[in-house]
Amino acid sequence: MTGSTHIAIGIASSLAILQPKTIPQCLCAATGGMIGGMISDIDHPKKRESINYSDDQYGWQTYTFLGIAITVLLALDFFEGNGAVDFCISNFGPSLLVGVVAFLGLCFYGASTYHRTFTHSIVAGALFTLTMWCFCRPLAIPFAIGFSSHLVIDFLNKRKCQYFWPLRFRLGLNKYPSDGKLNDFLFASGTIGAIYLFSYFFIHCFGNSVIHERLLTVFARSVSFFGIINVPFIVLYLVIINIVTFVVYVFDYYMYIHCTGFYRVPSKFDGQKKEDWSAVGTHMDAMEEFIHTILLIFDICGGMIGKLAAVVILQKGKVYKDKWRANFNLYIIPICFLICWLMIIITFFLPETTLWGNNLANLNLGSVPVKYIVLGYFLIINIVTFAVLPRVQRFAGLVITPREKICVILCLLGGASGGLLSLKTTGKHENATMLSDTLPEMIVMHAVVISCVFFAQ
Fold first, then answer.
1. How far is it, in rounded angstroms, from Cα 2 to Cα 19?
2. Rounded Cα distance, 60 and 25, in Å
């Protein structure tokens, strides 16, 4: 299967099996499952021209995002304490150094082997887990779970794996291509599971965490503006991040318009014949997708209003007429993250609202708790969206039909999980570019909303 699928399944499997009870356990489960889920593919087939294997077309994007995600998780782990980073600092010594060197040695050796040989074996899993146990024990068990999930789903691929290395015989169903419909289904399922499980466990533990106490202390601290007015620090932070986001999006817009900076066509494409221009287009599409995904970090960090302001000013206050895909990326996604921010702030930093939310979660409508009615609503709308989306043949065009608009609304109102699963399992996702690129963000919004209202302590 592709790298993104292994990462999603690794995280979901680790969280589902370990059921973390604290923030450090949650962060370690996600980080270890992520690393374990992808490390087997360090023996990437492109290193060997003799192996005909199709994996992620832009694997460098996957590993860049992976590095960013691991950095963020470990940073949160450091601030919370009693986790992976704290273990490494407290146990720094010969055994830790030996473990790190041994782990890196296994990585270098694995990268030099043929695909699905050593790094896809039980021996490699045991050795990797043992070395990680030496230098970062909290990550060892999640890592082993993520590594095991990789071996399990690769059993379904067309190319068999050498599970019992150094023995030469291979095992596998030899049936499903690594980038086929089964991979799409596993990616969608793993992504949905990882988002909901991480949101549930993280938010469920957040109220009693050190991070929550520190943030509450920092956010409540007053900051003086020019010695005239005093405002909470959270206001100053949001002002700064939105100004920065505004500048970044304006800069990105002008680079894109003038084809400069990151959007400049590399010299290797100079002199391309007209019939080869598709290679240039593919490169530019990949770069644009990569940069826009990186820019989502500013939305996540709270710069949604800055992005919206940049869009309104650059478009001179006009919304794209009938260009739903453009409007969707420019307006709807920032609003999704804005809702997430509001839910987090309301749930954890406004006590009177938190009490109201807890009362709502415990309220009954007749003999049925309201929380089960809401969960039932999300279940039904996802089933409906899953059934409706395959009947819509396209979302790639800038002008979409009324039926397609209904599907977009269904996804926004809670059916994003069913929509993603439907697009990936029916093979329609290649044409549904407007939704396939944005459904994960909507799933995050729904997961955060549900977790904040019904599962926060």
1. 26
2. 29
Residues 161 and 66 in one domain: yes
Q: Which residues, including other chains, have CB under 8 Å from residue 84's CB and lie 6 or more apart? A: 24, 27, 28, 31, 32, 74, 77, 136, 138, 139
| Residue 134 · residue 102 · CB < 8 Å | yes
Find the domain containing 289 and state its range: 222-318
Classified as helix, coil or strand, 230 is strand
CB 341 within 8 A of CB 238: no
For residue 222, give the H/E element and its range. strand 222-225
Q: Can you say whether the dihedral through the CA atoms of 61, 295, 397, 258 is positive or negative? A: negative
334-368 pLDDT, tens digit per residue, is 788 888 888 877 777 765 555 555 555 566 666 77
pLDDT in tens, 181-200: 788 888 889 999 999 999 88
Domain-embedded: residue 371: no
Name the burial class of residue 146, with classes exposed (0-12), middle (13-18) and buried (19+) by CB atoms within 10 angstroms of its CB.
buried
Of 254, 289, 318, which one is at a domain's C-terminal end? Answer: 318
Selection from 416, 378, 454 nearest residue 199 by Cα: 454
Domain count for the chain, please give it: 2
